[in-house]
Specification:
The protein has 245 residues and is mainly alpha-helical. The protein folds into two domains: 89 residues, Arc Repressor Mutant, subunit A, CATH 1.10.10.10; 133 residues, GntR ligand-binding domain-like (Four Helix Bundle (Hemerythrin (Met), subunit A)), CATH 1.20.120. It is built from twelve helices and three strands; from the N terminus they run H-H-E-H-H-E-E-H-H-H-H-H-H-H-H. A three-stranded antiparallel beta sheet has the order 1-3-2. The longest helix is centred in the middle third of the chain and has 25 residues. The chain is globular, with a radius of gyration of 18 Å.
Length: 245
């Protein structure tokens, strides 16, 4: 379960019952955030149905939602694949992320509640703990969830919708175009600095920190667009493990 899901469960206003396609959608979304589902991975409906124990109709609904967010490409008669942005698309995604993050940061400085700021800090502590114990995938996901929770705090649903798509797309372009062998992730020190600026309601400082933060992501990108062939059952082994226990 993601930390954002846990946060929502602690809020009675957001404790809505999830449908089967909600659950499948969240698993695939998290796998993309964790970079376990790299660009170009084929999402076979039959295999996913076996993995999650649901019908292909449920799988199609989840994939359709991901397709709407542009992180999955739905190909008529050929099935779905995880999106593989081109170089130009990657640049557009980074630019769009800057625009949305600026608006989100400004709104969060206006709307942040004390309890939400504490939740942000806990997200970053959890993120740091993941990287410290070598759980890179979970750490990368929590880095993304930090930005998604900021978008929730902005209290602007359209921005949150854009941000969900952009954060997952950024995870894909980092996996696809990153320089060097080591996987990058957001700096939790930068996250803490940003939280401090938000707590102080200092918009100009918070926005400057966010733009600096995004600079680091952009500077790690290169033209390497190789994608690997991936095994869905291996990627979702955690789900299979729970079903067999």
């Amino acid at each position: 379960m993601s930390r954002l899901t846990e946060i929502k469960k602690s809020d009675p206003k957001k404790g809505e019952k999830k449908t089967q396609d909600d659950i499948v959608y969240e698993h695939i979304f998290d796998a993309i955030l964790e970079q376990r589902l790299p660009p170009g991975t084929k999402l076979n409906e039959e295999s996913l149905g076996e993995i999650f124990g649901v019908s292909r109709t449920i799988i199609r609904r989840a994939l359709s939602r991901l397709g709407y967010e542009q992180v999955v490409v739905l190909r008529p008669n050929r099935g779905a694949v995880v999106a593989s942005p081109t170089i130009d698309e990657a640049r557009q995604i980074v630019f769009a992320r800057r625009v949305v993050e600026k608006a989100v940061t400004e709104l969060v400085c206006d709307n942040a509640e004390t309890a939400q700021i504490e939740q942000l800090k806990q997200l970053v502590r959890d993120e740091q703990a993941c990287f410290d114990r070598g759980d890179l995938g979970a750490g990368i996901r929590l880095s993304g969830e930090f930005h998604l929770y900021l978008a929730e705090m902005a209290k602007n649903p359209p921005l949150l919708s854009f941000q969900r798509s952009l954060v997952s797309l950024c995870s894909l372009i980092i996996a696809q175009f990153e320089k060097g062998e080591s996987k990058s992730h957001c700096s939790y020190d930068e996250h803490f600095e940003l939280i401090d600026a938000i707590a102080q309601r200092d918009k100009s400082k918070a926005v400057a920190l966010m733009m600096h933060h995004l600079d680091h992501i952009e500077h790690k990108l290169s033209l390497d667009d190789e994608a690997a062939d991936n095994d869905l059952k291996a990627i979702f082994s955690n789900v299979l493990g729970r079903k067999s226990s």
